[in-house]
């Protein structure tokens, strides 16, 4: 391999050239070895975000990222192994429902999850709201638990895709998250290293997502699917709406409570519908007939088989399994709970990113990487686009740690909600990429 000229490589990207796979490999490997400085990588990433990275460049980045750490070996597990990944949203707790449904349908679910990022929530932070729940499992513990009960949701250890951990932290503070190729490489390196044979992506689009435009989200979905398929994984994607919160809950304990409500059949609506769509799509990727898959996932919820799997997972990971019978008795409460009512009219728009940031500002998310989250705080946003606000009271329930925070949240909500006339509710699923060819 030719000697790497770091400034020249940055210059070529700055001037809009596509780099050869070898050049990409050399550049990212040199970064791992300490031969590309953080400021050089920042400049390179920004050049690529502005000029664009190609799908081939994304594929080469993914390879270096996977090879940077451990790859979990799930080959000893019987039956198809499955992982799902959301690109991040607000009120987006689907893993807590979809993983148990899939386990109840006979799949082996080994899911490595992350923490909240920016205005978006993270599955690990939510699960840790359950008293006693342990998210740090070794790869051996993950495989033993999946063998035993069909599912485990755990933190990726520091040894899995360390390149992504470094790059993600850098991208977060250099405004270089929004690139289909960079997100595809980040997501798919973790999915490939996670070892599952089937991978379903939930690519979010809307102002509460990293991709706000449908064309960009479609490009991201195609790149993820192409990378997964090139590595022999049955990979598909749904492109789903994030122009309003997915569930009515935004926070940690509140989101867990709503997910348990769906598992126990007490909360119909968009969130439940999307969980069923995602679980059905994952089953289809394993070769099941679509009608048969839809019937199996609905039955897993209706029969309580999925709720039983969730109970078994909570118990196996040290949490209080009574959560399934009475989530609000088990989960910690916020010190102050209050309400807010929207002006009279039809909800025509909601600043979803702003709602995520508001929940974060109450303490449900982090301002800095090293902060702890407060499991008790958050919002229950009871409205959906198209609802008559006079028919739903309250519009929002606020869970806060102080009266001052409660007043602050009420003030912010006035700016985040637009009431008027004649709203068109957005579709739940914009597109499905479940066929052979992502192009
Ligand atoms: N989620 C990821 O895992 N990586 C990204 O780059 C964006 C969202």
Our count of domains comes out at 3
* CATH class wording of the largest domain: Alpha Beta
Question: Low-confidence runs (pLDDT<50, min 5 residues)?
Answer: none
Can you count the beta strands? 12
Average pLDDT score: 94
Report how far the terminal alpha carbons are from each other: 32 Å
Strand order of the largest sheet: 3-2-1-4-5-12
What's the CATH topology label of the largest domain?
A: Pyrimidine Nucleoside Phosphorylase, Chain A, domain 2
> Helix amount, in percent?
40-55%
Integer-rounded radius of gyration: 21 Å
Bound molecules: uracil
Please trace the helix and strand order, writing H or E for each element.
Answer: HHHHEHEHHEHHEHEEHHHHHEEHEEHEE
Instruction: Sketch the major β-sheet.
Output: 6 strands, mixed
Beta-strand fraction estimate:
5-15%
CATH superfamily of the largest domain: Nucleoside phosphorylase/phosphoribosyltransferase catalytic domain
Number of helices: 17
Oligomer: single chain
CATH architecture of the largest domain: 3-Layer(aba) Sandwich
Structural class: alpha/beta
Inertia-based shape: globular
In short:
The chain is of the alpha/beta class. The chain contains 17 helices and 12 strands. Helix 2 packs parallel to helix 4, helix 5 crosses helix 14 and helix 12 crosses helix 13.
């Amino acid at each position: 391999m030719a000697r790497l000229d770091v400034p020249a490589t940055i210059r070529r990207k700055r001037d809009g050239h596509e780099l050869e796979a070898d050049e990409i490999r050399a550049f990212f490997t040199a970064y791992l070895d300490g031969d590309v400085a953080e400021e050089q990588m920042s400049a390179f990433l920004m050049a690529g975000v502005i000029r664009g990275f190609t799908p081939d460049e994304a594929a080469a980045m993914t390879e270096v990222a996977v090879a940077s750490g451990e790859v979990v070996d799930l080959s000893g597990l019987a039956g198809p192994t499955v992982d799902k990944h959301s690109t991040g949203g607000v009120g987006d707790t689907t893993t807590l429902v979809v993983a148990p449904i899939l386990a109840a349908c006979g799949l082996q679910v080994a899911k490595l999850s992350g923490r909240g990022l920016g205005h978006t929530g993270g599955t690990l932070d939510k699960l840790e709201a359950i008293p006693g729940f342990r998210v740090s499992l070794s790869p051996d513990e993950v495989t033993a638990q999946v063998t035993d009960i069909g599912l485990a949701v755990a933190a990726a250890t520091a040894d899995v895709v360390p390149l992504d951990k470094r790059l993600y932290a850098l991208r977060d503070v250099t405004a270089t998250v929004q690139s289909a190729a960079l997100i595809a490489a980040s997501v798919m390196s973790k999915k490939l290293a996670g070892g599952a044979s089937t991978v379903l992506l939930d690519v979010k689009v809307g102002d509460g997502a990293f991709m706000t435009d449908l064309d960009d989200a479609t490009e991201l979905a195609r790149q993820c699917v192409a990378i997964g398929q090139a590595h022999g994984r049955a990979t598909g994607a749904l492109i789903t709406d994030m122009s309003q919160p997915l569930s009515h809950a935004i926070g940690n304990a509140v989101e867990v409570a709503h997910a348990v409500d769906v598992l126990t059949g007490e909360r119909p609506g968009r969130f439940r519908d999307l969980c069923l769509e995602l679980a059905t799509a994952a089953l289809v990727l394993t070769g099941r007939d679509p009608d048969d898959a839809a019937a199996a996932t609905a039955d897993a919820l209706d029969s309580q088989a999925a709720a039983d799997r969730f109970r078994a997972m909570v118990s196996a990971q040290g949490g209080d399994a009574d959560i399934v019978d009475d989530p609000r008795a088990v989960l910690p409460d916020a010190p102050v709970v209050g309400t807010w009512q929207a002006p009279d009219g039809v909800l025509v728009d909601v600043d979803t990113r702003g709602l995520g940031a508001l929940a974060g500002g109450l303490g449900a998310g982090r301002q800095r990487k090293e902060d702890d989250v407060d499991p008790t705080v958050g919002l229950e946003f009871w409205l959906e686009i198209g609802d008559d606000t006079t028919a739903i009271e309250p519009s929002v329930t606020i869970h806060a740690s102080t009266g001052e925070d409660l007043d602050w949240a009420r003030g912010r909500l006035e700016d985040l909600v637009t009431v008027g006339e004649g709203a068109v509710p957005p579709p739940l699923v914009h597109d499905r990429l479940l066929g052979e060819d992502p192009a």
